């Protein structure tokens, strides 16, 4: 377990912190496939936003295509002096992404604004995106300005701007704009009518979930199919997921959809295809992970790292696994952060560093990964921290338990059962154990057995206790075997035989306890 002693952080402040993702501004005005690879988002502003470029801009584009950033910026600055709006837009793109110049969103905004004043579509769109994406909570005027810029370019027929407006109204902006699902659906409908396939997909999502009215799965499915037919890789992936997880799973249909999405450079498509192939063709699965991982798709980086760490479908490469986890962690992926924390904790392919392990576990837990929340709770509950802190432990376990994570539920139940004072709550402990046991968690079966044997929060029931100990023992909880024997000696042979018969008939079914 990681060592907290050198950390001055306390959980009551840690759990209140927001882990904000690093803002990466990538401006694109073309309707590209979801999770397009890096070369696609790089190419989009160059090929989709500039029509009939001047000689200077055309030369700058050549430099940008070949990633000769400094030379590109020189050409663009010269063209900006000629008041060329294409050059202003592309210079803003370079400034926003730190290509050939120090990254500066303020400079990028000024460049986009200059081009937007001349009705440059891409600059108007990018200006709106930048103002909204960089607005601080409560910056209502800045958000309104960004929305107006998007509306201006949407009025000129840009489907991508309409889609973005739909996304903004669907999710809202904390402190600045409340969600408006009717408005969101309206913008998605306008974008879909303008030929934006991804907006058809978003309409389907809202219909499936009943966000803007009554749920209509059939209409949603029709929209997903229409969106996929028009090139939406998000819709293709969604159709694959539905085929894979429906009442009658169709693996072959799911594979065809994932393959179609992957063929259109959908990183999620590659990743989903890899997950589907893991059992039947691990080498092919790893290749799919690699294709998505090399473009920075965090979930694929994690699975590619796991394959390298375990040597499944590829040669074992611990250093490569650590590198993949690091890249995923830098992107804020909670599982990547967790896997990296394990590497730091164990010194696996990297220098052992308990402080970095703690930080990565913490960030993973704050990002919502239940296993990391459980590990944080265990750290505080066990006293690996400077002193045991059951309040801090309970706070972390609660986060995992709320997600249905059985180990967190059981650990939180143990705190409620065994800790004196305000945290003591045997009834809550009983319910948490029962929930975890219902998922087959062996320790929860054991702890439930103890409660019904001793009559804590429930009437004494030796038959149920024996049944529960049998289940815990069968599931691998070593201490349960001795307890089962102890309880059996307090029952008649006929009762023991009857309990065992019932258990063997349904070994995963919990007995009636209340």
3D structure, described in words:
By secondary structure, the chain is mostly helical. The protein is built from 28 helices and no strands. It has helices spanning 11-14, 38-48, 55-65, 69-81, 85-97, 105-116, 121-133, 140-154, 159-171, 181-193, 197-209, 217-229, 233-245, 251-263, 267-277, 282-293, 298-310, 318-330, 334-346, 354-366, 370-382, 390-401, 406-418, 426-437, 442-454, 462-474, 479-488, 493-505. The chain is elongated. The two termini are 37 Å apart. Mean pLDDT is 90; it is low at 1-47.
Please sum up the structure shown.
With about 525 residues, this protein is an all-alpha fold.
Secondary structure: elements and pairs:
Layout: H1 11-14, H2 38-48, H3 55-65, H4 69-81, H5 85-97, H6 105-116, H7 121-133, H8 140-154, H9 159-171, H10 181-193, H11 197-209, H12 217-229, H13 233-245, H14 251-263, H15 267-277, H16 282-293, H17 298-310, H18 318-330, H19 334-346, H20 354-366, H21 370-382, H22 390-401, H23 406-418, H24 426-437, H25 442-454, H26 462-474, H27 479-488, H28 493-505
**Describe the biggest sheet?**
none
What is the alpha-carbon Rg in Å? 28 Å
Give the averaged pLDDT, no decimals.
90
Helix content: 55-70%
Query: How much strand content do the residues show?
Result: under 5%
> Which spans have pLDDT < 50 for at least 5 consecutive residues?
1-47
Name the overall outline.
elongated
- The total of helices stands at 28
Order of helical and strand elements: HHHHHHHHHHHHHHHHHHHHHHHHHHHH
How many angstroms does the end-to-end distance come to?
A: 37 Å
Structural class: mainly alpha
Q: Would you report the number of β strands?
A: 0
């Amino acid at each position: 377990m990681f060592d907290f002693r050198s950390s001055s952080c306390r959980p009551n402040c840690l759990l209140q912190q927001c882990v904000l993702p690093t803002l990466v501004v990538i401006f694109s005005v073309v309707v590209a496939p979801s999770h397009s690879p890096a070369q696609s988002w790089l190419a989009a502003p160059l090929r989709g936003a500039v029509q009939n470029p001047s000689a200077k801009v055309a030369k700058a584009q050549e430099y940008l295509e070949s990633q000769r950033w400094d030379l590109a910026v020189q050409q663009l600055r010269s063209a900006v002096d000629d008041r060329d709006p294409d050059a202003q837009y592309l210079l803003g793109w370079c400034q926003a992404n730190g290509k050939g110049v120090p990254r500066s969103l303020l400079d990028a905004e000024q460049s986009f604004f200059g081009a937007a004043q001349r009705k440059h579509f891409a600059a108007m769109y990018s200006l709106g995106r930048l103002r909204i994406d960089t607005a601080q909570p409560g910056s209502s005027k800045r958000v309104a300005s960004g929305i107006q810029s998007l509306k201006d370019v949407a009025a000129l027929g840009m489907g991508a701007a309409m889609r973005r407006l739909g996304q903004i109204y669907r999710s809202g902006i904390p402190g600045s704009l409340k969600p408006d699902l009717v408005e969101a659906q309206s913008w998605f409908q306008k974008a879909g009518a303008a030929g934006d396939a991804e907006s058809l997909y978003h309409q389907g999502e809202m219909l499936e979930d009943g966000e803007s009215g009554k749920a209509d799965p059939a209409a949603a499915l029709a929209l997903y199919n229409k969106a996929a037919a028009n090139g939406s890789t998000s819709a293709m992936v969604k159709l694959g997921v539905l085929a894979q997880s429906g009442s009658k799973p169709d693996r072959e249909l799911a594979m065809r959809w994932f393959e179609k999405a992957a063929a259109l450079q959908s990183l999620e498509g590659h990743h989903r295809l890899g997950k589907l192939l893991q059992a039947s063709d691990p080498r092919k699965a790893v290749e799919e992970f690699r294709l998505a991982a090399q473009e920075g798709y965090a979930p694929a980086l994690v699975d590619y790292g796991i394959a390298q760490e375990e040597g499944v479908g590829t040669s074992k490469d611990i250093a490569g696994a650590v590198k993949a986890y690091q890249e995923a962690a830098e992107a804020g992926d909670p599982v990547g952060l967790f896997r990296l924390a394990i590497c730091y904790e164990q010194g696996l392919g990297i220098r052992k560093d308990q402080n970095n392990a703690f930080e990565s576990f913490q960030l993973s837990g704050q990002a919502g990964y239940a296993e990391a929340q459980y590990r944080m709770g265990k750290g505080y509950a066990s006293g690996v921290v400077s002193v045991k802190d059951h309040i801090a432990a309970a706070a972390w376990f609660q986060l995992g338990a709320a997600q249905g994570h059985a180990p967190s539920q059981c650990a939180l139940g143990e705190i409620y059962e065994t800790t004196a004072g305000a945290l003591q709550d045997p009834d809550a402990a009983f319910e948490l154990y029962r929930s975890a046991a219902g998922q087959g968690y062996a320790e929860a079966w054991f702890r439930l057995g103890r409660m019904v044997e001793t009559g804590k929060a429930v009437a004494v029931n030796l038959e149920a206790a024996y049944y529960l100990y049998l289940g815990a023992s069968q599931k691998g909880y070593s201490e349960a075997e001795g307890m089962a024997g102890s309880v059996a000696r307090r029952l008649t042979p006929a009762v023991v035989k009857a309990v065992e018969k019932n258990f063997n008939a349904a070994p995963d079914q919990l007995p009636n306890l209340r």
